[in-house]
Structure prediction request, 62 residues.
Amino acid sequence: MRFAGLGIQLAVSIVVFVLVGQWADRKLGTGGIVTILAAFLGFGGTMYSLIRTLNRRDGDDE
Prediction:
């Protein structure tokens, strides 16, 4: 139950980055490129944060 919120964090951050990317695409007229880049950025950043959190928690248990 300790890590129940991590999946929600991943989903919310990806949705937020995609929405920001769509907004930027509409403003810039780039046809979806910014949305794709924002989705990858959101996923990568969140995975980095999750891995650091999990590694930190594993180190505390030893």
